[in-house]
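Section: Multi-chain targets

For targets with more than one molecule, the full set of components is provided together so that the structure can be written out for the assembly as a whole rather than chain by chain. Components appear in the order listed by the source. The example entry contains two components.
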Amino acid sequence: MGDLVEPLVHGLTLGSLYAMVATGLALMFGVVRLINFAHGEFYMLGGYAFWYAYGELGLPYPVAALVATAAMGAFGLVYERSVIRTILPRTWHVQLIATLATSITLTNLAILVFGTQPKEVPTTLSSAILEVGGVRMAWQRLVVLVAAVVIFAGLEWFVTRAKLGKAMRAMSQNREACAVVGVDVQRVALATFGLSAALAGGAAALVSPLFNIFPDVGALLTLKAFAAVIVGGLGFVKGAIAAAFLIGVAESLAAGYLSYAYKDAIAFVVMVAVLLVRPQGLFGRRIGI
Amino acid sequence: MRALRWSFGGVFLVAVPWIVAAVAPGQQRYILHVLIFTALYGALALSYDLVVGHVGSLSLAHPAFFGIGAYTAALLGTEARWPFAAALPAGIAAAGLMALAVGVPMFRLTEHSFAMGTLGFALVTQIVATNWVEFTRGPLCVTGIPKPELGPLRIVTLPAFYWMGLTAVGLVGLLYHGLTTARLGRAFHAVRDNEMLASAASIHPLKYRMLAFVIGGAVAGGVGTLFASYVGVLCPTELAVSLSVNLLVMLFLGGVGSLRGVVVGAVAFTALPEILRMAPTWRMVIYGLLLLLIVIRAPDGLEGVIRRRSAAWRQPSGG
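Its structure, encoded as tokens over all components, is:
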């Protein structure tokens, strides 16, 4: 029993991470039609922000997690104002290469500043083991799962009820019409980047006690999150979340039963398989948050 | 006049090893090494530009094709003792076939998704090269790759490798020129500039994209083969995604979609780090920032600067 449940719990933890990163990608794509190749690097920077706040400054875990989330939110705002705003009117080639260039720059700056040695940030919750009916897992995994449920419920409320969230959904449907009826499209785009980056930072604060933080974690993570976005149907946030959990569980089961070395290839295999059968993604809606 | 200039240029390029020997005898090995890398990078960048610059598909799979060609030829040369004359076509064919197989699902994707999908393929190829230790020797690298030998012609010395690189970049340049001008080139550009209009004019976008992708991949495999035989060692790190970034910097620095631009970009790119002697990490930071700056400020690269200058020179009145 535990043999199957444990990889499942691990897979759901991974899925929570992928889902938070994928949500950011899907939100940005929905609102401004841009794929941010540097999104995995936001997670990486969030991890270092958390390491600094928790490991170096010694703040209590919830405070350190909020600090990392807020720091990345601010970073997202700066990124939108400096890089994104200049490339938004340009072709998708320019946008893609500019975000890719940002990703390379951030990764290598992180290597220069923090070194290639992975940082470990164990907390009391990540070393305490919870045992239920023969299934053993770290308490931190439970924290991640509960936090993921809370965050996604909050996000659902935000995009359906809050004014700003509604504006994001409207922009994902028709940017011109939004501008015509007086939605401040630049402010909404700015908020979207802040929110997406904060989600990546929050994900980093949640899972960093379980996984190591290292400078080039971003490239693979961006890829997996994007695979989830494509599998779920480009720009459809709920589809991306579901696909992210699917990929997380598939990866965890593959690592346990097939081959640990090749686990990173799973997301890609799932993506290609889905594309061959359903090019529009599993949930088949074209666009919309 | 034009033919004269070309033949002068050609003679000069062929004579470079002697010129270097005469001018800087102490530095000969080092300068030739840099020039060989420049030539191989130039050939690789040209093959990449077929895909990026001419049919407008932003593929990030090029390091994978480079690596597949290199590994095929290297393993055939070391394990199966194939002669170079057979291993080179095998490397080209393996990379081309892989491009064909990967292209089928990938071209279902458009724009960003295509870029991300091909990036995924490149990452998976590197994962396989690192982890399939029994076959590729993983991080221990394939060593003792034999030097190229074509009948009586043995390429061992640095000048010989320089001429090999020069021949390679020349042949790829000719292929590039042949493919991107005339009827085929116009079809490529039609697909790149307006897909819907192209298909309305019965130019099947997928067919031409696939053609450029497969030829680009096959050429990359060939360059990989030459690279492996020159260096003699092949490691999974050669397949890193950063190779795509290097190629993009070359293309955008020089000028996307232009033979002269790409060659200028490759020369500037390989000469630059030799001038800016610094740690590889700093180099990547600078490349990243440089790429960001070029793509925002001067998307047509050095080629655009050259073209504007020469246009201004031809019309001194300024119009």
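Chain B touches chain A through 36 residues (CB under 8 Å).
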